[in-house]
Amino acid sequence: MYPEPIHHAHAPRAADVHHPVPFPPAPVVHPGPVVAVRPNAAPAVASIVLPDGRVITGYAVSPVQPEPLAAKPPVSRAAVNVALGGVGFLAVCGGLLLLTTFIAALAAFIHQLVILAAVIFGGWIAVQVLGTNGHRGGTTVHIRKAVIKRNHFHG
Asked: Which of 37, 48, 66, 132 has the most CB atoms in a 10 Å sphere around its CB?
């Protein structure tokens, strides 16, 4: 009826017994005698006399020479030619792409100008044809108080 008790991880149980285990002793190392090592040749001692008469004596120190750089392997002429050819080919392709893009843009611009001119000219024609400037019906011309209407003389 009641749930079982929950065992916590840090709570000791009756079956868990821990005994400390000591580390084995470290081995004893006896240092050997210290032996001075002499260089193969004694370094040269240099003395310098300063202008004021003082003498400075010391060992000559040779400058540290950097290690020589490893020689680069030679590059074959064929590899250079292939690389330069590839770069040239890409440059030509890019130039042709830009040229065709420019030509297409120029053609579209000219097309738009033609359409604009047609709209403006068509509008001007429409105003001329459909515009009203006082004349209704046929053509009327007044010559010396005589009226000529549709090629008929009315006096």
From this structure: 48
Give CA–CA dist 120/129, Å, rounded.
14
Ordered DSSP codes for 3-31: PPPPPPTTS--TT------PPPPPPP-PP
**C-alpha to C-alpha distance for 113 and 107, rounded to whole angstroms:** 10
- Phi/psi for 3 (5° steps) reads -70, 160
User: Which amino acid is it at 123?
Assistant: G
Asked if residues 113 and 120 have their Cβ atoms less than 8 Å apart, the reply is no
Name the one residue in this structure whose structure tokens are 């003082």: 54
- Distant-in-sequence, close-in-space partners of 141: CB < 8 Å, separation ≥ 6: 147, 148
Q: Look at residue 100 and give its three-state secondary structure.
A: helix
Model confidence, pTM: 0.34
d(C-alpha 95, C-alpha 90), whole Å: 9
What confidence tens digit (pLDDT) does each residue in 40-57 have?
Answer: 666 667 778 888 988 888
Report DSSP state, residue 68.
Answer: P
